[in-house]
Design brief:
Elements lengths: L5 E9 L8 E6 L2 E6 L2 E6 L4 E7 L5 E2 L5 H15 L8 E9 L2 E8 L2 E12 L2 E8 L10 E2 L4 E14 L12 E5 L1
Antiparallel strand pairs: 1-2, 1-12, 2-5, 3-4, 3-13, 4-7, 5-6, 7-8, 8-9, 9-10, 10-12, 11-12
Length: 181
């Protein structure tokens, strides 16, 4: 059985008291990516982001570092104060494959559209990609607490792990495909 498509979002701590905060991994639970020839489109629902846990120095996620209450509070801050998901419930991408390893296009986030570029690699029947976003490009200020002594960096890493062929375990990507959570 082929592993499902996943999108992870990584946030990074910053500020004078950063040692009291955590780098985080979030999982986007609802998304859809479509390929039609070289054209790519994506729909992403940021309210479906779930806090997986803190990322340690070893790069591993520790789901037990944060309590359920902490995870709920982070989710509320993210949806209500940072992404304003009631006003902007959907993020969209429209673009194209430039070549076998690169996609470029426009991402609409929080009501603003900016160009982005993502790189991919095929590996063991999977497509793995990543893109670093600078939230301030979309008018999203980095989250701050304790008068800015704890804050998030103005950098978010988004990773995608998709079956190369969502309808089989093949190593090739079909010309027409739909990946979803």
């Amino acid at each position: 059985m082929t592993a499902p498509a996943t999108i992870h979002v990584f946030t990074y701590k910053d500020g004078l008291l950063a040692r009291l905060a955590h780098d985080l991994r979030l999982t986007l639970r609802r998304f859809e990516i479509r390929r039609d020839g070289q054209a790519l489109t994506g729909r992403f629902w940021p309210a479906s982001l779930a806090v997986d846990g803190a990322v340690g120095r070893d790069g591993q996620v520790d789901p037990s570092t944060l309590s359920a209450g902490d995870k709920d509070k982070i989710h509320r801050n993210m949806t209500d104060e940072i992404l304003h998901t009631e006003r902007h419930p959907e993020v969209t991408f429209t673009g194209r494959l430039v070549d076998a390893t690169t996609a470029e296009g426009e991402l609409t986030l929080a009501g603003k559209t900016c160009p982005i570029r993502a790189t991919f690699r095929a590996q063991a029947g999977r497509l793995r990609g990543e893109v670093t976003l600078t939230p301030s490009r979309w008018g999203i200020a980095p989250y701050k607490a304790l008068a800015g002594a704890i804050k998030l960096q103005d950098r978010v890493l988004v990773t995608l792990d998709l079956p190369a062929d969502p309808s089989s375990a093949g190593d090739t990507t079909p010309a027409t495909a739909v990946w979803s959570s």
